[in-house]
Amino acid sequence: MNSIVLAVVVMMALSLVRVPVILALIIATFAGGMSAGMSVGDVIVAFEGGLGNGATIALSYALLGAFAVALSRSGITHLLAEKIVGAIGAEPGGRNVFYAKMLLCGALLLCASLAETIIPVHIAFIPILVPPLLEVMDRINLDRRAAACAVTCGLILPYMLLPVGFGAVYQQNILGENINLAGEGVGFAIDTATIPLAMVIPSLGMVAGVLIAVLISYRKPRSYEVKGVGARNEKVAVSTTLTTGQIALSILGIVAALVTQLATDSMMLGGLIGFAVLSGSGFFKWHEVDDVFVTGLRMMALVGFIMVTAQGFAAVMKETGEVSALVEGSTALIGDSKGLAAFMMLLVGLLITMGIGSSFSTVPIIAVIYVPLCINFGFSPLATVALIGTAGALGDAGSPASDSTLGPTAGFNADGQHDHMWDTVVPTFLHFNLPLLAAGWVAAMVL
After folding, report:
1. How many CB atoms lie within 10 A of CB 137?
2. What is the pLDDT of residue 378?
3. Confidence (pTM)
């Protein structure tokens, strides 16, 4: 078995039987690396070399977690929950509860989409926005798996379809440049302006997936215990009355955090500034600052360590050099079938991205191999873009190591009631990867 396939299978199998994701990643790293002929020492060196790539984002999430807990302790989140529930007029069993759920899921999808395009903060908004909404979701018995699918869709669909923000980076700098670079020697080139057109059909697969998740799969009520942000087994005491000045200071903290990140391109500094504003605003006593900060770090610790470990896992997978062997082995099964060729390229893209955890890192690896294959099988330039663009995006949802799944988990597990694998990874895998496979195949065959 190809080492990358083995590593991904081991990682997913262990994670699904509730082996901690970090341990599953480490075990899968050694399984994949050693099956590719690497020694234990080589695996360790490559693994440790990749760990640093995830340190910055892990620390950034820790600081955003501290900021989220500080917001919760200020009482602004409770006030927000009360206002939202009052505005939508929905309680469990009420006639408006379904519309309230749809409103929340739609709002989360919109916010995630804006975070990928017009306000390119990526996943940094999640620890700030989602925890305050958990109380609202719990009061109307919204299944958080539906909400997680909505957020993940918002994180992936915009960069696939819209050439704005991170979409401009993916479509022009990643997809367009790498396809043209791979086709340079054989006179093959694409116009980057046509990429959105090529990605319309695959994007419809994402839309279908989120509609099925929200309207069918997770429509039924699901009960949660109402807890405070950062809590595990106990409720966190928060302020119940706020003055106009305190509300203004809370809003100032949120704005300061977001503006700082946009200005410096640093989630870490944004979280630090936001926490500093709230700490100096008198919402909690000075001797409680350390407790609030540590609670936030603990809340984000799991996600942060998974992010760090995933980078080590990805480094070893790249070091094996098995991507070419995986494609060549798949090609041997294709024969002369154009339809089978499209399916195998998409499937291989799914496996690679699930292992590496990033579509942006997958495209440069597969484009150099896929472009010649697409030319040989007679795929048009638009079909080639659709194949490679979809193959890269596949696996971004549904990978335990992807920030498109780790981000939602960080927000929805702020009170310890949302499992990363079964409440985020499995739902997003089923509702996005399967429709993407089908829609990507259709796009390759009709364009």
Report:
1. 25
2. 86
3. 0.76
